[in-house]
Write a structure and sequence with these properties.
Nucleotidyltransferase, domain 5; DNA polymerase, domain 1; about 10% strand
Length: about 400
């Protein structure tokens, strides 16, 4: 099937109350599922709010809403909340949609469905071209969608993202039905909807790039205070933190531990859009880090499973189990046409390899996987494979350990 660029008429943005209510009426009168997408300004803004929400429904057409201008989406939620929503990579958009009061009861995720169906590449443009034969340009995917007014080329791009989603949903559903994987997909979609957001990490500052180069608690304290100062200011002016002060500038300043504000300003590695305009702010943070008695640990103790690279030394038995299970999963993945990471998340496999249940049976492994969040289809598909791999690993280790007769 040859691909062709989808043409499009000019697109308008709905940014008034009257236009919004008229659109809700038209969407209500349409038929079939709701295709929906949202555009954020990641990398430009601090918040992950939606700056554009696109909806398409057969019999109604496509609609582009300006969330800050519309404000209240209650009427739209009441109109579409009980209808199936079609999204591509739903986990990326559900949070910002819920932030404005839009929350589905049922979804169909075309990206996740394509993964389970065995498509080798699952980006929207690639899947649309593969299954529908239409070339979907993606040149505006990383744009600053907080821009106003939005350029017409961006709006056409945004409209096409949803106008093809319902047809794509039907094509992916056919693949899933034909391969007997629709029930797998249904469970995955339900799990995506039910997933709770991660709680805020009080040590988020430890994710600073280059933090490993700081070896002393005092330097870490300065980095921590600079990170919090940057985060507070970024939230205040709704700008991505890295656009104000790069991570490298924070770690460079923390390593330098300057004695004066002048020394900080003269440091060549301390740069960024706000490095000089907000110099008193950064200096105040450095002083706080220099004087605090609350010094962070260089190494943070953890109850979590250690990195896999250390298993061969710390727990060779667990290392052998994990390697055997990974090899078995590669075979299972090829047989079923499902990516390894969708058969079972790597974290769940590491957990059961580190501490398998006793007695080791498919039932006990399945229970452990389910308790840790695996879906029923994953437990049924992988538990016996895991048990067989673990038994093989143990028998191999025992045969190697046996002295020659």
């Amino acid at each position: 099937m040859s691909a062709e660029q989808a043409p499009h008429d000019p697109v308008d943005v709905i940014d008034s109350r009257d236009e919004y209510l008229a659109a809700v009426d038209r969407i209500s009168a349409g038929n079939g599922p709701i295709a929906i997408d949202a555009e954020r300004a990641s990398g430009f803004r601090y918040s992950q709010r939606a700056y554009l929400i696109q909806i398409f429904r057969r019999g109604a057409g496509s609609f582009l809403f300006d969330p800050p201008a519309v404000g209240d989406f209650t009427a739209l939620q009441e109109a579409i909340g009980s209808i199936e929503w079609v999204l591509h990579a739903a986990s990326q958009d559900l949070a910002c949609l819920r932030e404005v009061g839009l929350s589905p009861s049922t979804i169909f995720d075309t990206e996740l469905g394509a993964r389970l169906a065995g498509l080798p590449r699952v980006g929207l443009g690639t899947v649309v071209e593969e299954l529908l034969g239409i070339h979907l340009a993606k040149e505006h995917s990383a744009a600053d969608w907080s821009t106003r007014p939005l350029p017409q080329s961006w709006l056409v791009y945004a409209a096409l993202d949803v106008e093809l989603l319902v047809d794509l949903r039907d094509a992916v559903a056919t693949l899933l039905d034909d391969s007997g994987k629709m029930e797998f997909a249904r469970q995955e979609f339900e799990a995506t909807l039910a997933k709770e957001p991660k709680p805020a990490n009080p040590d988020a500052w430890r994710r600073l790039s280059g933090l490993h180069s700081l070896r002393q608690p005092r330097n870490l304290a300065i980095a921590r205070e600079l990170w919090h100062a940057r985060d507070d200011y970024a939230r205040e002016i709704d700008t991505a933190p890295g656009r104000l002060l790069p991570d490298a500038s924070i770690t460079a300043a923390a390593k330098l531990n300057p004695a004066t504000m002048t020394e900080l300003a003269a440091h060549r590695e301390f740069n960024g859009r706000a490095s000089r305009t907000q110099l008193p702010r950064w200096w105040k943070a450095i002083e706080a880090g220099r004087s605090t008695d609350d010094l962070p640990r260089v190494r943070v103790p953890s109850d979590s499973i250690p990195p896999v690279r250390s298993w061969s030394d710390k727990r060779p038995d667990a290392d052998a189990r994990l390697k055997a299970a990974r090899a078995a999963f590669l075979e299972l993945s090829a047989t079923m046409g499902i990516p390894v990471e969708n058969l079972l998340t790597p974290e769940l496999l590491r957990q059961v390899a580190w501490e398998p249940p006793e007695p080791l049976t498919a039932e006990s492994v399945g229970r452990q996987l389910a308790e840790n969040g695996a879906r029923p289809w994953q437990c049924e598909t992988t538990a016996h494979v895991i048990v067989d791999a673990f038994v093989d690993a143990r028998q191999t280790a025992e045969s190697v350990a046996e002295p020659p007769s």
